[in-house]
Amino acid sequence: MRFDPVIGLEIHAQLQTRTKIFCGCSTSFGAPPNSHVCPVCLGMPGALPVLNRAAVDYAIKAALALGCDIQPLSIFARKNYFYPDLPKGYQISQYERPLALGGALDITVGGHMRRVGLTRIHMEEDAGKSLHEGFPDSDRRTYIDYNRSGVPLIEIVTEPDMRSAAEAAEFFERLRDILVWLGVNDGNMEEGSLRCDANVSVRPAGQARLGTKAEVKNLNSFRYLEKALEYEIDRQVGLVDGGGRVVQETRLWDSGMGRTVSMRSKEEAHDYRYFPEPDLPPLVVNEARIAAVRGSMPELPEARRQRFVASYGLPVYDAGVLTSSSGLADYFEKVAVASGNAKAASNWVMGELLRTLKDRGAAIEQVPLTPAALAGLIALVDSGTISHSSAATMSPAVRPTTSLPPTASRRTATRARCSPSCATSLRPTRRPLPNTVPARRRASASWSGRS
User: Fold this and answer.
1) What are the C-alpha distances in Å from 18 to residues 52, 199, 314?
2) What angle do CA 98, 100, 102 make, to 5 degrees?
3) Are 27 and 18 in contact (CB under 8 A)?
4) CA torsion, ordered 383, 386, 387, 390, to nearest 10 deg
5) Please, what is the angle between helix 165-182 and helix 301-312, to 10°?
6) Which helix (H) or strand (E) holds 318?
7) Pairwise CA distance, residues 38 & 44, whole Å
8) Beta bridge mates, 320
9) pTM for the full predicted model
10) Containing H/E element for 165?
């Protein structure tokens, strides 16, 4: 019997605000444990939350980019559950009245386009972080870092419209590109700024009724999402095809073992006993505010991709590569305009420039060659002053601060050595952190998200 998978995603994206959603504590990553906390984000009695205006504007921006309907009135709610990294004993989220409804994102996998609908986008605060490993007494205790508690998040919930692990990974990647393009999220999945929960079920081909779903929690890479779903689909097909049944539960992806493992039974909405947050008034978003946020938004990736094809005559593939980030698209367009040769600009940016950036592990913002200087090189090649191969040997090493003069030649070009960019990797410490708060280990883990 053939089975069809049915997949929906819940994606938590941290908003790039400087302070937390309900207090003035910093959201910066990597600070000493429990140093970015106050009575509000620690849930002290009598401390009252105050909503961060910038967080709301970022959430509106993301919702507009995804075609959602911004609700004129939304309500924060208490999501009640106990875990040591949730200091108040509840999370402030949104439930019945979210910030935005509807929307969609088109993806293409294997030449087939699919429109993935969105159910909602709502705002919420993140929980703290439970540290289960790396301490001498990790077999008996869990340590807690509350720096992340109260960081602002949006949760983007899709309809169950995806039919393969590859489609889910493509959706997640496309969504990340949009959020980073907007400046809403930094896209850093290693630091937990963007993470995904996947709901998956299988059903006999042609059957309309959905099967029992399992949720795979806290996936923080496109590859892990795809691998976890491939495994989970195979697991569920094997169960159903063998006469068994799928249990509704929450599972975790074990990347070392290459399989999902059961974490806990899946909660229902009533288990959280949602009720309106009494310390926050309803959030009112009027048309003027929506218009102001819309006016601050850049041209979106898909619109820019289409414009590059129409205005510069680029192939669809080239336009897709050049709009993979706003910085790269800006750089290309400046070169194309200055040189008057969009195809040559595309070839140079996609070839020599991206290859050099990859070799150095650098971002487009760190490239030493200005757009005007690269346009000058292209003009010299077009005029026959220098050959393409000569220009190619010059371009990675040139560090101009102004445009190359029209009479510049290979002999007069300055060759400068570029130091490889340095990257700092933040890894969990393997020794006890002095400021962490010990809490008795529980059998299961749960955390919520926010930026």
Assistant:
1) 10, 32, 39
2) 120
3) yes
4) -150
5) 90
6) helix 316-322
7) 8
8) none
9) 0.83
10) helix 165-182
